[in-house]
Every structure is written in C-alpha cells, then in structure tokens.
TrEMBL record:
Record-listed E.C. numbers: 2.7.1.144
Top-rank taxon, per record: Bacteria
Pfam annotation, one family: PfkB
Record lineage: Bacteria, Bacillati, Bacillota, Bacilli, Bacillales
Gene: pfkB
Name of this chain's protein: Tagatose-6-phosphate kinase
Length: 309
C-alpha cells in the first residue's frame, strides 16, 4: 500500500484580478479553492494515474473538513489525525501588477497528536511505501522526521522524502528509497560546497547515491530535472510554455515519476513523463489533468550522462 504524509496541509485559494493595489478594495473575477499540501498532491496525482493511496497527516477546523470532503469526493482514502485549530489557507493572486503568494504558518500540533501519527506509521510494513512531503507545522520538531526514518529501517517500508528541512542531510544515512530536492534544497544538503555547474551537480548527486540514497531526483524548474541511481545519471530539459503557478509542479513530477516507474517503465521514460506532468501543472492553476502531457513529453530529451557513476 502507498501512503502519503502531509503534516501541514492547506487550502490553496487562487484569485485573478485586473489590478492588485494597496489601500483599495481589490475585487477578483476568478476564484478557485483546492485541497493542497505536497503529500496530498501526490495522492491526487497517483489517483489520476490509477494508483490508490491513503493520505495521512493533520487536519483541523472547517478548512480541514473541506480538504477531507474533497478527497472523499475524489475517492482518495485518508486517515488524518484531527487537531485543534484551523488548517491553513494560502492565497495566490494573479494580476497585471504581478503574482503574489501568501503562505500561512498553520496551526500548532500537540505532542499527543504527533504520537498518534507516529503510531499510524509504525503499522506500515515491507510491502508499503510512504511519501513524506512538505513543511512541518508549529509545535512539531524536526526530530519527528528522524523517528519516521528510523521506523522505515525497522519496519522495512520504502521512504520517499520531499522536504525543505535542513535535516534532510541527516536522513540520508537511513538509506531512503527516493529523495526529491529542488536545486536550492540540494545545495542546502552540502552547505560548504559551491554547486553551480552540471559537473558540480553530478559530483554531489553521485555522492548522495554512494551515501545510501537509492534514487535521487533534482528538480530544476524551467531547466528540467536530474535523476541519479546506482545504474547511472539522466538529465532532462523542460518544455516551454506560459507559467501560471509553480506551487504544485514538483508534487506532480514526484507522483508521476513514482507511478510510471511502479508501472514498469524505465527511469528514462519515467523522468520524461514526470517532467512533462510537472510542466503541465506549472502551466495551469492546479494539478495537471494529464491531457497535454503526451504533447509536452514529445518535446523532452533525456540525456544519459556517460560514465557518471
């Protein structure tokens, strides 16, 4: 079974307005409310690709209820821990004056509720996969990530990380199945290194694989993505298009890569499909519906880096 864990989910409110100016009533002409959070997005992407998962994490208040109702309506299984407080609402505004993003901190989560989540995760076994994605809410120490990593070793489930926490460098020792940093997060794993060129990326990506990371994807935005494992190194370009919102593109990339690989494709095809899905997501306000992914994929070139490993 596949599980996703989103400890700090959100409703994403997308607004479009002609102008967005201070000290004025700015009226929108378009609004869209979406259940969000990086792990939740992965569950939605997997569902659209015909793979079932169970979404875990923390939800509270009317906004948490909205997220659960939306997932229930999609047919996505979920088993969130109910918490005090209100799940956050993030706002994304597009106007002639620019794009604005307001991301809230979210509610505080008690130690008691954290322990419930850990107990849920402790029930996973060797046939299971767990995605842990996104930021930590108030009250949750980074040590919880080490607890989850330790459980993955003890219980034998595959662990996939997509987090921005600096502790990611410490989690490598637990030999995760896959990690997906963006280029800035990748650089943070090696704070004393200057990582600017392709040669730098290859050198340090190779070091992560040799340290125990089974699979590594580095998302590069409009420059595509890299993939590393013990068999080699792949590089992808990205399709061209009008970027609408990049907030969920990495989640679409990660979910699509895993799904395509799990369905028997080679890493090169999985990477191309994933970059196409991530780009499709960036070209719309929400997650891709996959209708344009085949066309976008046709513009992607996967390059195998000779002798990289």
């Amino acid at each position: 079974m596949i599980y996703t864990c989103t400890m700090n989910p959100a409703i994403d409110l997308f607004c479009k307005m002609k102008r967005f100016v201070p000290e004025a009533v700015n009226r929108s002409f378009y609004e869209e409310y979406q259940p969000n959070g990086k792990g939740i997005n992965v569950s939605i992407v997997l569902h659209r690709l015909g793979i079932q998962s169970t979404a875990l994490g923390f939800l509270g208040g009317f906004s948490g209820g909205f997220i659960k109702e939306e997932l229930d309506g999609m047919g996505i299984a979920n088993d969130f821990v109910d918490i005090e407080g209100i799940t956050r609402i993030n706002t994304f505004i597009q106007s002639e004056d620019g794009e604005y993003k307001v991301v809230n901190g979210g509610p505080e989560v008690s130690k008691e509720k954290q322990d419930i989540l850990i107990r849920q995760i402790s029930m996973l076994g060797s046939d299971d996969v767990l995605f842990v994605s996104g930021s930590l809410p108030k009250g949750v120490d980074r040590e919880i990530l080490l607890d989850i990593a330790s459980l993955s070793v003890e219980k034998g489930f595959k662990l996939i990380w997509d987090i921005s926490e600096t502790i990611l460098s410490d989690l490598v020792a637990y030999r995760p199945y896959l990690i997906k940093p963006n280029i800035d997060e990748f650089r943070n794993i090696f704070p004393d290194a200057d990582i600017n060129t392709d040669a730098d990326i290859i050198r340090y990506g190779k070091a992560l694989v040799q340290s125990g990371v089974e699979n590594l994807i580095i998302s590069m935005g409009d420059e595509g993505a890299w993939f590393f494992n013990a068999s080699g190194v792949l590089k992808s370009n990205a399709p061209e298009g009008e970027v609408v919102n990049t907030a969920c593109s990495g989640d679409a990339l990660l979910g699509t890569f895993y799904a395509t690989l799990a369905q028997g494709s080679e890493p090169s095809d999985a990477l191309a499909e994933a970059v196409a899905a991530g780009s499709s997501t960036a070209f719309t306000s929400g997650l891709t519906d996959f209708e344009d992914v085949a066309d976008l994929k046709s513009t992607i070139k996967i390059t195998e880096v000779e002798g990289a490993l």
